[in-house]
Write a sequence for this structure.
């Protein structure tokens, strides 16, 4: 476990992120579902939240990539881009269907979990089962490929 200023900074950033999700409504499944309901009572407010996140993230990632180190001096690990493949498309579709059905995605799910939202409890449980299932399948595939 990290100690000192670095650990405090990480906790503080997580707190700010969580508060942003709460204030913006991203941790409220009904608000997210209203955003996704294009043919009904569409709520476009989350589009502004997403646009704001992109405006902040794009320059931040560009600066971080150029520096090669995090603000705390740790090496920056940016995923390599391998292009679009079946695995990416399947994962994206699964994420999108889950988000559309539940109105929750992983980050806001943990924030909603902290508020005791019953839908978040079910979602996080299902998400953990899905992650475990994926890990077991991946290990089996790696074992079969290396044999």
């Amino acid at each position: 476990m990290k100690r000192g200023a670095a650990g405090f900074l990480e906790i503080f950033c997580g707190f700010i992120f969580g508060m942003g999700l709460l204030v913006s409504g991203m941790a409220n499944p009904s608000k997210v579902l209203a955003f996704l309901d294009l043919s009904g009572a569409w709520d476009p407010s989350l589009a502004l939240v997403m646009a704001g996140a992109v405006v902040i993230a794009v320059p931040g990632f560009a600066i971080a990539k150029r520096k090669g180190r995090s603000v705390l001096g740790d090496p920056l690990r940016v995923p390599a881009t391998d292009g679009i493949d079946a695995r990416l498309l399947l994962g994206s579709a699964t994420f999108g269907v889950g988000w559309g059905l539940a109105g929750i995605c992983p980050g806001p799910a943990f924030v909603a979990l902290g508020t005791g939202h019953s839908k978040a409890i079910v979602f996080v449980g299902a998400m953990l089962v899905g992650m475990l299932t994926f890990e077991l399948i991946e290990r089996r595939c790696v074992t079969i490929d290396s044999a």
